[in-house]
């Protein structure tokens, strides 16, 4: 299993995501785990828009690391033909891009994008849009050249001290750019790492096993970090930041109004709890939920083996100091990672008994998927032996079936007409493969039980089908 860290293509390294905790929680379940680093920010994703500097160096770094792992993992007892790539947020987008690029797509067999993927708006820009942002940043730093003088632009950027090129999550003080989104330097459709349109490459990629999903309230983290007025006016301003002319052209004002109306319909402007929740839902949908929802649907329609989840477990007492800034406690961006990697990420992590149960559940799902392409584990003649029961943890067996639960050597046999709990990691319902014909169907992961549900994010992603049809930039990708 190879982990690609997130951080908005801008911050962090593999060191932020644990070492002994990964060994304790994942490696004890019969897998090898590698974590990798890659260039970030300007160093990783600046482009001049031509052959002088195509950008996407971070993706090339990831590819080189994958190639080394595939060539050498057998020396560590691993199988070079059974590699699972997993990542979260920008790391999730990265593993998706690696799965479609012809330079990297044959280096692994399975992929787990968590809370981010290539279908998310933050994950890529057109070459032209990313080049424009890069020029605007260079002018902010003092570059005076002509837009067409890419040689001068590149030399200027190379001459800057790293202290001037450093970026963080917060907007660069005094810098304003014309492009949609909060992130500055991200992958671009360069014609090199992506020799064809990403949508075309997705259709051409080899079949892979996919496990993907989001948390219950992805936007809660972003709102808690501050910088957004939690009011109707704040929602309106956010739509202006995220929906810009560069993407929607003459339709931009009608798109902004439709989005604003959808999230604020019937709200009392004086009800701060409701307006805060509306902002949380909008931020989460825009940044993460809609993209991952579309990704699961597209990949299933292309006949990949897809498992789609919503992680909804939260220990409200384990948010640390960050919890003081949260309007309410719930599963949010990054919090699922502590139950996979064992590291708190956004706060210190001192697991209680329920946390330890969820660690066991999540690490078993992840390692079972890595080994077998199925988070339920190695099923022996069991798939056809149980019927779905979305609202309960019990299934009725219609024939004798044995299910092997990994990594422990435990089996449970269900006999005719008797009711038994499915022996997945959580003794909850069987996690069913995703279907493009039922795109809202997903596996809700929670305590005390996990189960199949059919109302992903209150069905809000369906609203964006019409919105995204008017996104000119996305149409070119």
From TrEMBL:
Its EC number is 3.1.1.-. Keywords: Hydrolase, Serine esterase. It is an enzyme of class 3 (hydrolase). Residues 1-385 form the Carboxylesterase type B domain. SUPFAM superfamilies: alpha/beta-Hydrolases (SSF53474). The keyword ATP-binding does not apply. It holds the Pfam family COesterase. GO terms for molecular function: carboxylic ester hydrolase activity. Coiled coil: none annotated. PANTHER family: CARBOXYLIC ESTER HYDROLASE, CARBOXYLIC ESTER HYDROLASE-RELATED. Belongs to the type-B carboxylesterase/lipase family. This is Carboxylic ester hydrolase. It comes from Diploscapter pachys.
């Amino acid at each position: 299993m190879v982990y690609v860290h997130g951080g908005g293509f801008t911050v962090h390294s593999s060191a932020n995501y644990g070492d002994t905790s990964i060994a304790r929680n994942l490696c004890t379940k019969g897998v090898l785990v590698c974590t990798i680093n890659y260039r970030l920010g300007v160093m990783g994703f600046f482009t001049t828009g031509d052959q002088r500097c195509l950008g996407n160096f971070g993706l090339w770094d990831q590819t080189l690391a994958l190639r080394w792992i595939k060539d050498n993992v057998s020396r560590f007892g691993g199988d070079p033909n059974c590699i699972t790539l997993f990542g979260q947020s920008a790391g999730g987008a990265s593993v998706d891009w690696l799965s479609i690029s012809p330079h990297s797509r044959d280096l692994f067999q399975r992929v787990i994008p968590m809370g981010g993927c290539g279908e998310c708006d933050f994950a890529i820009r057109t070459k032209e849009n990313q080049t424009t942002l890069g020029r605007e940043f260079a002018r902010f730093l003092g570059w005076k050249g002509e837009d067409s003088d890419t040689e001068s632009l590149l030399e200027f950027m190379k001459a800057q001290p790293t202290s001037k090129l450093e970026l963080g999550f917060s907007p660069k003080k005094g810098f304003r750019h014309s492009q949609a989104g909060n992130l500055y330097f991200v992958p671009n459709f360069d014609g090199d790492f992506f020799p064809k349109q990403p949508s075309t490459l997705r259709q051409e990629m080899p079949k892979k096993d996919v496990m993907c999903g989001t948390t219950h309230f992805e936007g809660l983290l972003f709102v808690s970090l501050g910088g957004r007025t939690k009011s109707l006016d704040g929602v309106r301003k956010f739509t202006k930041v995220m929906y810009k002319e560069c993407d929607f052209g003459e339709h931009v004002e009608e798109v902004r109004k439709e989005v604003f109306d959808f999230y604020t319909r019937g709200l009392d402007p004086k009800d701060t709890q409701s307006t805060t929740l509306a902002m949380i839902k909008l931020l989460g949908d825009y940044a993460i939920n809609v993209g991952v929802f579309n990704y699961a649907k597209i990949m299933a329609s292309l006949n990949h083996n897809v498992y789609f989840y919503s992680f909804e477990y939260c220990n409200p007492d384990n948010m640390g100091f960050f919890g003081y800034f949260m309007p309410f406690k719930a599963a949010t961006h990054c919090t699922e990672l502590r139950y996979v990697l064992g590291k708190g990420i956004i706060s210190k992590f001192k697991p209680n008994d329920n946390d330890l149960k969820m660690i066991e559940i999540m690490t078993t799902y992840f390692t079972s998927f890595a080994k077998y392409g199925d988070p339920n584990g190695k099923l022996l003649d069991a798939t056809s032996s149980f019927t779905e029961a979305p609202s309960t943890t019990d299934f009725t067996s219609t024939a004798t079936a044995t299910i092997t639960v990994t990594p422990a050597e435990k089996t449970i046999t269900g006999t005719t007409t008797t009711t038994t709990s499915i022996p997945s990691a959580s003794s909850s319902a069987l996690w069913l493969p995703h279907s493009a014909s039922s795109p809202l169907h997903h596996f809700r992961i929670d305590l005390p039980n996990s189960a199949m549900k059919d109302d992903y994010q209150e069905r809000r992603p369906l609203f964006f089908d019409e919105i995204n049809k008017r996104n000119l930039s996305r149409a070119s990708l």
